[in-house]
Write a structure and sequence with these properties.
The protein is mainly β. The chain contains one helix and six strands, in the order E-H-E-E-E-E-E. The termini are far apart.
C-alpha cells in the first residue's frame, strides 16, 4: 500500500485486522491511521489520513470492528467522518 499526494484519506471496510497489525499498516501507509479491529476472519474498519488542513477533534472506534468515527475541524467547520461496516442480517 502506498500513499499518494493526491489522496487526503481512504476508508476501508472488512480489513480483518487485529491489534498486532497496527504498526505494519502505519509503516506501509506512512501517515496517520485509525483502526477498529474485528478479527483475522471478520469485520474491521480503517481510516487512513494522508494530509488535509483539518484538525482531529475526537476519534472513536467500535470494539467489534464495525465502525470508526472521526470528528474534524476544517476552516472552522466541524465535520463528522464515519466509516461503517455492517454484516447483512439473514431473515
Amino acid at each position: 500500500m502506498q500513499s499518494s499526494k493526491e489522496l487526503t484519506s481512504l476508508f476501508f471496510q472488512e480489513t480483518h485486522s487485529v491489534k498486532n497489525d497496527t504498526q505494519f499498516w502505519k509503516a506501509q501507509w506512512g501517515g496517520d491511521i485509525w483502526l477498529s479491529h474485528g478479527s483475522e476472519r471478520a469485520a474491521g474498519t480503517t481510516i487512513l489520513k494522508n494530509s488535509f488542513a483539518g484538525v482531529i477533534l475526537h476519534s472513536e472506534g467500535d470494539p467489534k470492528g464495525h465502525f470508526f468515527i472521526l470528528v474534524i475541524n476544517i476552516n472552522d467547520t466541524v465535520i463528522l467522518l464515519v466509516n461503517t461496516y455492517w454484516v447483512q442480517l439473514k431473515k
